[in-house]
Protein backbone atom coordinates (compact mmCIF):
# COMPACT_ATOMS: atom_id res chain seq x y z
CA UNK A 1 0.00 0.00 0.00
CA UNK A 2 1.49 3.33 -1.13
CA UNK A 3 0.42 6.46 0.76
CA UNK A 4 0.92 9.98 -0.58
CA UNK A 5 1.41 12.80 1.96
CA UNK A 6 0.58 16.30 0.74
CA UNK A 7 1.44 19.63 2.38
CA UNK A 8 -0.06 22.54 0.44
CA UNK A 9 1.16 26.07 1.04
CA UNK A 10 -0.09 29.22 -0.63
CA UNK A 11 2.51 28.93 -3.41
CA UNK A 12 3.98 25.45 -2.98
CA UNK A 13 3.04 21.77 -2.70
CA UNK A 14 5.33 19.43 -0.75
CA UNK A 15 4.80 15.69 -1.22
CA UNK A 16 6.12 12.32 -0.05
CA UNK A 17 5.20 8.84 -1.31
CA UNK A 18 5.58 6.10 1.30
CA UNK A 19 5.54 2.30 0.88
CA UNK A 20 3.58 1.20 3.93
CA UNK A 21 4.50 -2.51 3.75
CA UNK A 22 8.23 -1.89 3.37
CA UNK A 23 8.16 1.19 5.64
CA UNK A 24 10.25 3.16 3.14
CA UNK A 25 10.07 6.49 1.38
CA UNK A 26 9.68 5.86 -2.34
CA UNK A 27 9.89 9.47 -3.50
CA UNK A 28 9.49 13.01 -2.24
CA UNK A 29 9.53 16.46 -3.72
CA UNK A 30 8.25 19.99 -3.96
CA UNK A 31 6.43 22.11 -6.50
CA UNK A 32 7.46 25.74 -6.03
CA UNK A 33 5.95 29.04 -7.20
CA UNK A 34 2.42 27.70 -7.66
CA UNK A 35 0.04 30.51 -8.74
CA UNK A 36 2.80 33.15 -8.77
CA UNK A 37 4.51 32.06 -12.00
CA UNK A 38 7.85 30.46 -12.88
CA UNK A 39 6.70 27.14 -11.34
CA UNK A 40 8.95 24.08 -11.19
CA UNK A 41 9.07 20.66 -9.54
CA UNK A 42 12.02 19.14 -7.68
CA UNK A 43 11.63 15.36 -7.42
CA UNK A 44 13.85 13.06 -5.33
CA UNK A 45 14.08 9.26 -5.40
CA UNK A 46 16.53 7.36 -3.14
CA UNK A 47 19.56 6.26 -5.15
CA UNK A 48 18.89 8.60 -8.07
CA UNK A 49 19.97 12.08 -9.01
CA UNK A 50 17.56 14.87 -8.09
CA UNK A 51 15.19 15.72 -10.96
CA UNK A 52 13.96 19.24 -11.71
CA UNK A 53 11.48 20.37 -14.33
CA UNK A 54 10.07 23.79 -15.17
CA UNK A 55 6.29 23.65 -15.59
CA UNK A 56 3.76 26.44 -15.07
CA UNK A 57 1.19 25.75 -12.33
CA UNK A 58 -1.39 28.56 -12.22
CA UNK A 59 -3.36 26.66 -9.55
CA UNK A 60 -3.02 23.76 -7.10
CA UNK A 61 -4.96 21.31 -9.28
CA UNK A 62 -2.39 21.67 -12.06
CA UNK A 63 0.41 21.35 -9.47
CA UNK A 64 -1.10 18.07 -8.21
CA UNK A 65 -1.45 16.86 -11.78
CA UNK A 66 2.26 17.64 -12.31
CA UNK A 67 3.14 15.60 -9.19
CA UNK A 68 1.07 12.63 -10.40
CA UNK A 69 2.63 12.79 -13.89
CA UNK A 70 6.11 12.93 -12.34
CA UNK A 71 5.42 9.96 -10.04
CA UNK A 72 4.27 7.90 -13.06
CA UNK A 73 6.83 9.21 -15.56
CA UNK A 74 8.55 6.27 -17.37
CA UNK A 75 12.02 7.72 -16.79
CA UNK A 76 11.81 9.66 -13.52
CA UNK A 77 8.76 8.17 -11.84
CA UNK A 78 8.35 5.35 -9.31
CA UNK A 79 4.82 4.11 -10.07
CA UNK A 80 3.61 1.96 -12.97
CA UNK A 81 0.06 3.16 -12.46
CA UNK A 82 -1.58 5.85 -10.36
CA UNK A 83 -3.93 3.21 -8.90
CA UNK A 84 -1.01 2.12 -6.69
CA UNK A 85 -1.74 5.16 -4.48
CA UNK A 86 -4.07 3.78 -1.81
CA UNK A 87 -4.76 7.05 0.03
CA UNK A 88 -3.63 10.65 0.43
CA UNK A 89 -2.90 12.39 3.74
CA UNK A 90 -3.22 16.19 3.87
CA UNK A 91 -1.69 18.57 6.36
CA UNK A 92 -4.38 20.97 7.57
CA UNK A 93 -3.02 23.76 9.73
CA UNK A 94 -6.15 24.79 11.62
CA UNK A 95 -8.98 22.53 12.71
CA UNK A 96 -10.43 24.83 15.35
CA UNK A 97 -12.13 22.93 18.17
CA UNK A 98 -13.87 20.49 15.83
CA UNK A 99 -11.00 18.01 15.43
CA UNK A 100 -8.97 16.30 18.13
CA UNK A 101 -7.44 13.71 15.80
CA UNK A 102 -6.93 12.92 12.12
CA UNK A 103 -10.11 12.10 10.14
CA UNK A 104 -11.28 10.77 6.80
CA UNK A 105 -12.24 13.72 4.62
CA UNK A 106 -15.82 14.14 3.48
CA UNK A 107 -17.98 17.16 2.68
CA UNK A 108 -18.66 17.78 6.38
CA UNK A 109 -14.92 17.92 7.14
CA UNK A 110 -14.25 20.29 4.24
CA UNK A 111 -17.03 22.62 5.40
CA UNK A 112 -15.73 22.52 8.99
CA UNK A 113 -12.21 23.45 7.81
CA UNK A 114 -13.63 26.26 5.68
CA UNK A 115 -15.61 27.51 8.69
CA UNK A 116 -12.39 28.23 10.62
CA UNK A 117 -10.24 29.48 7.74
CA UNK A 118 -10.57 33.02 9.11
CA UNK A 119 -8.39 31.79 12.00
CA UNK A 120 -5.61 30.77 9.57
CA UNK A 121 -6.17 32.84 6.40
CA UNK A 122 -2.66 32.16 5.08
CA UNK A 123 -2.81 28.40 5.61
CA UNK A 124 -6.28 26.85 5.50
CA UNK A 125 -7.27 28.14 2.02
CA UNK A 126 -4.27 26.44 0.31
CA UNK A 127 -4.83 23.33 2.46
CA UNK A 128 -8.41 23.21 1.18
CA UNK A 129 -7.20 23.86 -2.36
CA UNK A 130 -4.87 20.86 -2.05
CA UNK A 131 -7.69 18.61 -0.85
CA UNK A 132 -9.98 19.70 -3.67
CA UNK A 133 -7.17 19.33 -6.19
CA UNK A 134 -6.44 15.74 -5.15
CA UNK A 135 -10.15 14.90 -5.24
CA UNK A 136 -10.26 16.27 -8.79
CA UNK A 137 -7.12 14.48 -9.99
CA UNK A 138 -7.67 11.23 -8.01
CA UNK A 139 -11.45 11.06 -7.54
CA UNK A 140 -11.57 7.46 -6.27
CA UNK A 141 -8.76 7.72 -3.69
CA UNK A 142 -9.64 8.28 0.01
CA UNK A 143 -8.28 11.45 1.62
CA UNK A 144 -7.34 11.99 5.28
CA UNK A 145 -6.86 15.31 7.10
CA UNK A 146 -4.06 15.58 9.68
CA UNK A 147 -4.44 18.71 11.80
CA UNK A 148 -1.63 20.83 13.27
CA UNK A 149 -3.96 21.86 16.09
CA UNK A 150 -5.28 18.40 17.08
CA UNK A 151 -2.41 17.42 19.41
CA UNK A 152 -3.01 20.53 21.54
CA UNK A 153 -6.72 19.96 22.12
CA UNK A 154 -5.83 18.37 25.49
CA UNK A 155 -4.91 21.80 26.90
CA UNK A 156 -7.01 22.75 29.93
CA UNK A 157 -9.35 25.72 29.64
CA UNK A 158 -7.22 27.90 31.90
CA UNK A 159 -4.32 27.44 29.45
CA UNK A 160 -6.17 28.18 26.22
CA UNK A 161 -8.57 30.97 27.21
CA UNK A 162 -7.18 34.51 26.84
CA UNK A 163 -7.92 37.24 29.42
CA UNK A 164 -10.18 39.02 26.92
CA UNK A 165 -13.96 39.50 26.75
CA UNK A 166 -15.23 35.92 27.07
CA UNK A 167 -17.77 36.34 24.30
CA UNK A 168 -14.88 36.78 21.86
CA UNK A 169 -14.27 33.09 22.51
CA UNK A 170 -17.90 31.98 22.36
CA UNK A 171 -18.73 34.08 19.28
CA UNK A 172 -15.50 34.02 17.28
CA UNK A 173 -13.38 31.17 18.67
CA UNK A 174 -10.64 33.45 20.01
CA UNK A 175 -8.45 31.15 22.11
CA UNK A 176 -5.04 29.44 22.09
CA UNK A 177 -4.92 26.59 19.57
CA UNK A 178 -1.24 25.82 19.00
CA UNK A 179 0.46 24.40 15.92
CA UNK A 180 3.22 21.98 14.80
CA UNK A 181 1.18 19.28 16.55
CA UNK A 182 2.47 16.35 14.48
CA UNK A 183 6.08 17.36 15.20
CA UNK A 184 5.49 17.67 18.95
CA UNK A 185 3.69 14.31 18.90
CA UNK A 186 6.51 12.55 17.07
CA UNK A 187 9.41 13.81 19.18
CA UNK A 188 7.52 13.34 22.46
CA UNK A 189 6.96 9.65 21.62
CA UNK A 190 10.61 9.24 20.64
CA UNK A 191 11.76 10.98 23.84
CA UNK A 192 9.71 8.52 25.90
CA UNK A 193 11.51 5.64 24.15
CA UNK A 194 14.93 7.20 24.81
CA UNK A 195 13.99 7.68 28.47
CA UNK A 196 12.81 4.08 28.74
CA UNK A 197 9.36 5.18 29.87
CA UNK A 198 5.79 5.04 28.67
CA UNK A 199 4.52 8.35 27.22
CA UNK A 200 1.96 8.66 30.05
CA UNK A 201 4.82 8.70 32.54
CA UNK A 202 6.75 11.50 30.82
CA UNK A 203 6.86 15.24 31.44
CA UNK A 204 8.62 17.01 28.58
CA UNK A 205 9.31 20.36 26.96
CA UNK A 206 9.51 20.01 23.18
CA UNK A 207 11.01 22.86 21.16
CA UNK A 208 10.28 22.94 17.41
CA UNK A 209 12.69 25.54 16.00
CA UNK A 210 12.67 26.26 12.28
CA UNK A 211 11.59 29.34 10.40
CA UNK A 212 8.41 28.92 12.44
CA UNK A 213 8.98 28.17 16.12
CA UNK A 214 6.74 26.64 18.76
CA UNK A 215 7.22 25.03 22.15
CA UNK A 216 5.03 22.57 24.00
CA UNK A 217 4.62 21.68 27.67
CA UNK A 218 3.80 17.97 27.83
CA UNK A 219 2.54 16.51 31.11
CA UNK A 220 1.87 12.79 31.41
CA UNK A 221 2.24 12.45 27.64
CA UNK A 222 -0.25 15.11 26.53
CA UNK A 223 -0.03 18.78 25.59
CA UNK A 224 -1.04 21.10 28.44
CA UNK A 225 0.32 24.35 27.00
CA UNK A 226 2.00 25.61 23.85
CA UNK A 227 3.58 28.86 22.72
CA UNK A 228 1.65 29.58 19.50
CA UNK A 229 -1.85 30.88 20.03
CA UNK A 230 -4.91 31.80 17.99
CA UNK A 231 -2.46 32.08 15.07
CA UNK A 232 1.18 31.04 14.55
CA UNK A 233 2.29 34.62 15.34
CA UNK A 234 2.38 34.29 19.14
CA UNK A 235 5.24 32.79 21.12
CA UNK A 236 8.94 32.54 20.37
CA UNK A 237 11.11 34.68 18.09
CA UNK A 238 10.85 33.24 14.57
CA UNK A 239 12.40 33.79 11.15
CA UNK A 240 10.01 36.58 10.16
CA UNK A 241 7.38 36.54 12.97
CA UNK A 242 7.76 38.65 16.09
CA UNK A 243 6.36 36.24 18.69
CA UNK A 244 5.44 37.67 22.10
CA UNK A 245 5.33 41.49 22.22
CA UNK A 246 3.49 44.22 24.11
CA UNK A 247 0.02 44.16 22.46
CA UNK A 248 -0.06 47.96 22.47
CA UNK A 249 2.88 48.19 20.05
CA UNK A 250 0.84 47.57 16.86
CA UNK A 251 -1.64 50.38 17.68
CA UNK A 252 1.21 52.70 18.64
CA UNK A 253 3.06 52.09 15.38
CA UNK A 254 -0.13 52.38 13.32
CA UNK A 255 -0.50 55.90 14.71
CA UNK A 256 3.18 56.82 14.37
CA UNK A 257 3.60 55.53 10.81
CA UNK A 258 0.00 55.90 9.56
CA UNK A 259 -0.19 52.13 8.94
CA UNK A 260 -3.31 50.13 8.18
CA UNK A 261 -4.31 46.90 9.94
CA UNK A 262 -3.18 45.01 6.82
CA UNK A 263 0.19 46.80 6.91
CA UNK A 264 0.84 45.95 10.55
CA UNK A 265 -0.25 42.33 10.06
CA UNK A 266 2.25 41.99 7.23
CA UNK A 267 5.05 43.58 9.29
CA UNK A 268 4.47 41.37 12.34
CA UNK A 269 4.25 38.17 10.25
CA UNK A 270 6.69 38.77 7.41
CA UNK A 271 9.16 41.51 8.40
CA UNK A 272 9.82 40.91 12.10
CA UNK A 273 11.61 38.22 14.13
CA UNK A 274 15.17 37.46 13.04
CA UNK A 275 14.63 39.40 9.80
CA UNK A 276 13.34 42.42 11.70
CA UNK A 277 16.34 42.51 14.04
CA UNK A 278 19.07 41.88 11.46
CA UNK A 279 17.40 43.72 8.58
CA UNK A 280 18.74 41.08 6.17
CA UNK A 281 18.49 37.46 7.27
CA UNK A 282 16.01 34.77 8.25
CA UNK A 283 18.31 31.75 7.88
CA UNK A 284 20.12 31.19 11.20
CA UNK A 285 23.20 29.98 9.31
CA UNK A 286 23.55 33.43 7.75
CA UNK A 287 23.00 35.01 11.16
CA UNK A 288 25.69 32.87 12.80
CA UNK A 289 28.17 33.43 9.96
CA UNK A 290 27.77 37.19 10.09
CA UNK A 291 27.74 37.33 13.89
CA UNK A 292 31.15 35.62 13.78
CA UNK A 293 32.30 38.36 11.37
CA UNK A 294 31.31 41.05 13.86
CA UNK A 295 27.78 41.99 12.76
CA UNK A 296 26.31 43.38 15.99
CA UNK A 297 22.68 42.98 14.94
CA UNK A 298 23.21 39.32 14.04
CA UNK A 299 24.83 38.76 17.43
CA UNK A 300 21.91 40.55 19.08
CA UNK A 301 19.39 38.40 17.18
CA UNK A 302 21.07 35.24 18.48
CA UNK A 303 21.13 36.57 22.03
CA UNK A 304 17.46 37.56 21.91
CA UNK A 305 16.39 34.18 20.53
CA UNK A 306 18.47 32.18 23.01
CA UNK A 307 17.26 34.31 25.93
CA UNK A 308 13.60 33.82 25.01
CA UNK A 309 14.05 30.07 24.52
CA UNK A 310 15.59 29.93 28.00
CA UNK A 311 12.56 31.76 29.43
CA UNK A 312 10.16 29.28 27.86
CA UNK A 313 12.04 26.37 29.42
CA UNK A 314 11.71 28.00 32.85
CA UNK A 315 8.05 28.80 32.30
CA UNK A 316 7.13 25.31 31.17
CA UNK A 317 9.12 23.68 34.00
CA UNK A 318 6.77 25.51 36.34
CA UNK A 319 3.79 24.17 34.35
CA UNK A 320 4.68 20.45 34.11
CA UNK A 321 6.34 19.98 37.51
CA UNK A 322 8.89 17.14 37.56
CA UNK A 323 10.63 17.38 34.19
CA UNK A 324 12.16 14.36 32.45
CA UNK A 325 13.62 15.96 29.34
CA UNK A 326 13.82 18.89 26.95
CA UNK A 327 13.77 18.10 23.21
CA UNK A 328 15.10 20.25 20.38
CA UNK A 329 13.78 19.51 16.89
CA UNK A 330 13.18 20.92 13.36
CA UNK A 331 15.85 22.51 11.17
CA UNK A 332 17.41 24.97 13.61
CA UNK A 333 16.70 22.84 16.66
CA UNK A 334 18.46 19.89 15.02
CA UNK A 335 21.40 21.74 13.45
CA UNK A 336 21.91 24.90 15.50
CA UNK A 337 24.32 23.87 18.23
CA UNK A 338 25.20 27.50 18.95
CA UNK A 339 21.59 28.44 19.71
CA UNK A 340 21.12 25.33 21.86
CA UNK A 341 24.22 26.20 23.88
CA UNK A 342 23.09 29.79 24.40
CA UNK A 343 19.70 28.51 25.52
CA UNK A 344 20.98 25.91 27.99
CA UNK A 345 23.88 27.86 29.49
CA UNK A 346 23.23 28.73 33.14
CA UNK A 347 20.45 26.20 33.72
CA UNK A 348 22.50 23.96 36.02
CA UNK A 349 20.56 25.17 39.05
CA UNK A 350 17.39 23.87 37.38
CA UNK A 351 18.93 20.44 36.79
CA UNK A 352 20.12 20.83 33.18
CA UNK A 353 23.86 20.25 32.66
CA UNK A 354 24.86 20.72 29.04
CA UNK A 355 27.74 18.66 27.62
CA UNK A 356 29.27 21.12 25.17
CA UNK A 357 31.15 18.50 23.17
CA UNK A 358 28.04 16.37 22.74
CA UNK A 359 25.99 19.42 21.82
CA UNK A 360 28.48 20.58 19.20
CA UNK A 361 28.61 17.07 17.70
CA UNK A 362 24.81 16.85 17.43
CA UNK A 363 24.47 18.21 13.88
CA UNK A 364 22.40 15.63 12.03
CA UNK A 365 18.94 15.43 10.45
CA UNK A 366 18.97 11.65 10.99
CA UNK A 367 20.58 10.83 14.35
CA UNK A 368 19.02 11.22 17.80
CA UNK A 369 21.48 12.64 20.33
CA UNK A 370 21.80 13.25 24.06
CA UNK A 371 23.48 16.62 24.67
CA UNK A 372 23.57 16.74 28.47
CA UNK A 373 26.07 15.11 30.82
CA UNK A 374 25.48 11.60 32.12
CA UNK A 375 24.75 12.95 35.60
CA UNK A 376 22.35 15.68 34.46
CA UNK A 377 19.08 15.24 36.41
CA UNK A 378 17.14 16.45 33.36
CA UNK A 379 18.07 15.09 29.95
CA UNK A 380 18.19 17.19 26.79
CA UNK A 381 17.84 15.45 23.42
CA UNK A 382 18.12 16.48 19.80
CA UNK A 383 15.53 14.42 17.92
CA UNK A 384 14.99 14.92 14.17
CA UNK A 385 11.27 15.24 13.57
CA UNK A 386 9.31 13.21 11.02
CA UNK A 387 5.89 14.76 10.51
CA UNK A 388 5.32 12.86 7.26
CA UNK A 389 5.63 9.54 9.11
CA UNK A 390 2.89 10.68 11.50
CA UNK A 391 0.75 11.56 8.46
CA UNK A 392 1.38 8.14 6.92
CA UNK A 393 0.67 6.11 10.05
CA UNK A 394 -2.53 8.05 10.75
CA UNK A 395 -3.73 7.43 7.19
CA UNK A 396 -2.88 3.71 7.28
CA UNK A 397 -4.58 3.23 10.65
CA UNK A 398 -7.73 5.06 9.53
CA UNK A 399 -7.93 2.85 6.42
CA UNK A 400 -7.40 -0.26 8.56
CA UNK A 401 -9.90 0.86 11.21
CA UNK A 402 -7.36 0.75 14.06
CA UNK A 403 -6.89 4.47 14.63
CA UNK A 404 -7.71 6.22 17.91
CA UNK A 405 -6.30 9.13 19.96
CA UNK A 406 -2.52 9.23 20.22
CA UNK A 407 -2.37 8.03 23.85
CA UNK A 408 -4.14 4.78 22.94
CA UNK A 409 -2.78 4.25 19.43
CA UNK A 410 0.63 2.60 19.13
CA UNK A 411 2.77 4.35 16.54
CA UNK A 412 5.68 2.35 15.13
CA UNK A 413 8.09 5.07 16.22
CA UNK A 414 6.87 4.77 19.81
CA UNK A 415 8.26 1.23 20.04
CA UNK A 416 11.76 0.54 21.44
CA UNK A 417 12.70 -1.54 18.37
CA UNK A 418 11.89 1.27 15.91
CA UNK A 419 14.59 2.00 13.34
CA UNK A 420 14.23 5.04 11.11
CA UNK A 421 14.99 4.20 7.48
In short:
With 421 residues, this protein is of the alpha/beta class.
Secondary structure topology:
Layout: E1 2-8, E2 12-19, E3 24-32, E4 40-44, E5 51-54, H1 60-71, E6 85-92, E7 103-104, H2 107-115, H3 124-137, E8 143-147, H4 157-160, H5 166-172, H6 181-195, E9 204-209, E10 213-219, E11 222-226, H7 249-257, H8 261-270, H9 273-278, H10 284-292, H11 296-320, E12 325-329, H12 330-335, H13 337-344, H14 356-361, E13 369-370, E14 379-382, H15 387-400
Parallel strand pairs: 1-6, 6-8, 9-12, 12-14
Antiparallel strand pairs: 1-2, 2-3, 3-4, 4-5, 7-8, 9-10, 10-11, 13-14
Describe, in plain words, how this protein is organized in 3D.
The protein is α/β, with parallel strands linked by helices and 421 residues long. The chain has 2 domains: 2-147, ATPase, nucleotide binding domain (Nucleotidyltransferase, domain 5, 2-Layer Sandwich), CATH 3.30.420; 198-382, ATPase, nucleotide binding domain (Nucleotidyltransferase, domain 5), CATH 3.30.420. The protein is 37% helix and 18% strand. It has 15 helices and 14 strands. It has helices at 60-71, 107-115, 124-137, 157-160, 166-172, 181-195, 249-257, 261-270, 273-278, 284-292, 296-320, 330-335, 337-344, 356-361, 387-400, and strands at 2-8, 12-19, 24-32, 40-44, 51-54, 85-92, 103-104, 143-147, 204-209, 213-219, 222-226, 325-329, 369-370, 379-382. Strands 5-4-3-2-1-6-8-7 form an 8-stranded mixed sheet, sandwiched between helices. A 6-stranded mixed sheet has the order 11-10-9-12-14-13, with helices on both faces. Strand 2 (12-19) and strand 3 (24-32) form a beta hairpin. The chain is globular, with a radius of gyration of 21 Å. The two termini are 17 Å apart. The model has no long low-confidence stretch (mean pLDDT 93).
